[in-house]
Structures are given as structure tokens and as C-alpha cells.
Amino acid sequence: MNVLLAGVVIFIVLILLLLWLPVARSIKPQHNYRQQQNIALYQQQMAQQPSHELATELSQRLLQDEKYLENQPHFSFAQDQSAVSFGVKIALASVLIGIPLIWYVALPRYSDVVQGEQEYLEQKQKAMMANLSGDNQEYIEKIQQQLRQDPNDAKLWLLLGQVYMQANEWDSALISFSNAEKLEGSKANILGLAASALYYQAGERITPKVSQLLDIILQQDPQEISALSLLAAEAYKQQDYARALSLWQNILDSGKSQVDRRMIIQRMKSIEMLQSPISP
Length: 280
Prior knowledge:
Elements: H1 2-20, H2 30-47, H3 52-70, H4 76-106, H5 108-130, H6 137-149, H7 154-166, H8 170-184, H9 188-201, H10 208-220, H11 225-237, H12 241-254, H13 261-275
Domain Cytochrome c-type biogenesis protein H TPR: 139-253
TPR repeats: 154-187
Protein name: Cytochrome c nitrite reductase, subunit NrfG
């Protein structure tokens, strides 16, 4: 995503440079044209050999007009032209920048870039979670220190909540997920983690609150990993092995990068072993 943003910025800068480079128009001041006309008229009148009084009057008029023009600003006409050209430049820049951006966003490649960035972050978070030890207080403090520097980082709040869940600190986990929800809204992945924390906080029971959250989550994303994992764990506990297998298979089929495929396959094999007949 950083590469994409850098490319967009460079593209916009190039467009603006092309539009705002001096186009080397030398716009003559308006008073130059009037001055030339006055001189030409004066020469025509003098060619007719007027009387001395009329010649003096014509000379005074020309001199007065020259003084008047000297006191006028020499850039009024240029300003008007510049104002018009600036508006045209703004419109042209909007078209040149807007059309390619809209076209690029509509391409499948853009969604691939966004998805790739999301998968990278999920893999990084997954690796960090896998390295957690039993005593993760130091790691919690590290995340808290980062949040003091940037309390508006929703991903850090989600990570902190997951670390709290590893330590069975459900209240702290729920507070972290609530902060993430305030920043990013009621997204399915945030609600899924909150539902899991509530489920384990209640002693691995699907309370009315958990059930309500699960309905909301699955309406947003029928393949939300945390929600499906919770339902699969509950089905396994209730010995509803067919439902558990179906839910775990749905998780595997989702193709999401945060799925721990090895662990799910092991659980599915354990069910198959439980269901297989014992040979005499």
C-alpha cells in the first residue's frame, strides 16, 4: 500500500508540474496598446498642420494621457488572464488526476494490492502471536508503550486484546476490542474477537449477548474466522461432530491468511479418530 501511495503522489506531482510550469507567455500590459494608439492619433493630427493653439492642446492631451497611464497598475490585464488560466488549470488537473485514479481503483490489480497488504499484516500479527510465551506481560507493556505514542492505532488495540486473551484476561481484552471498534467501527473481525472473549469469559457458554454478536458478525461476513471458530468449538464441546467438521471445513475453504490450518486439520483428524470404530 505504501508503494501504491508513493506512485499516486508521484503521478499527481508530475501532472501539477506539467500544468504549472511557466508557459512563457509575455502578455503585454494593456496601457502599451493605448499608448501606441494615442501616439498614432497625435501624429495623424499633427500631419494636418493644425494651428498653434490646437497643436499645443493636442500635445498637452497626449502628455496628460501619458501621465495617467503611468499611474495605472501595469498588471491588471495579466491578473485577469492569470485568473482565467488558473481556473482552467484546476479543471484540467482534476480531470487528468481523477480519471486515471478512478480507472486504476476499478482494476482488479488495486484490490489485489489491498488484499496483499492486508494478508501481510495478518501474517505478521500471526507470527507475533505465535512467539508469545506463557509470561507475556513484557509483550503487553511493549504494545501499551506503542499505544501511548499512537492511541488511534486500531490494529495495535486488536493485537493487545488478543494478547490479553492469551493471558485469560477477558475484561482487559474486551476493553481493547472496544477501543478498536470506536476507531474502525463495528467490523466483523473486531466483533468476532469480542464475541470470543465474551464466550470464554462466560465459561465457554454462548450467552444471549454472544449469540446476538454472532448473528451480526455472520450477516456481515459469513466466513469470519473468530465467529466460525467459536461455533466449531461449541459444537465440538456438545459432541456435535458433524457440525464441528463442517464449520472447520468452512474456515479452511475461506482461504484467509490468519487461519491456523495445521491446528484445524489436527482437530478434524481427532474427530475422525473418535468416530472410527475400535477394532477388536
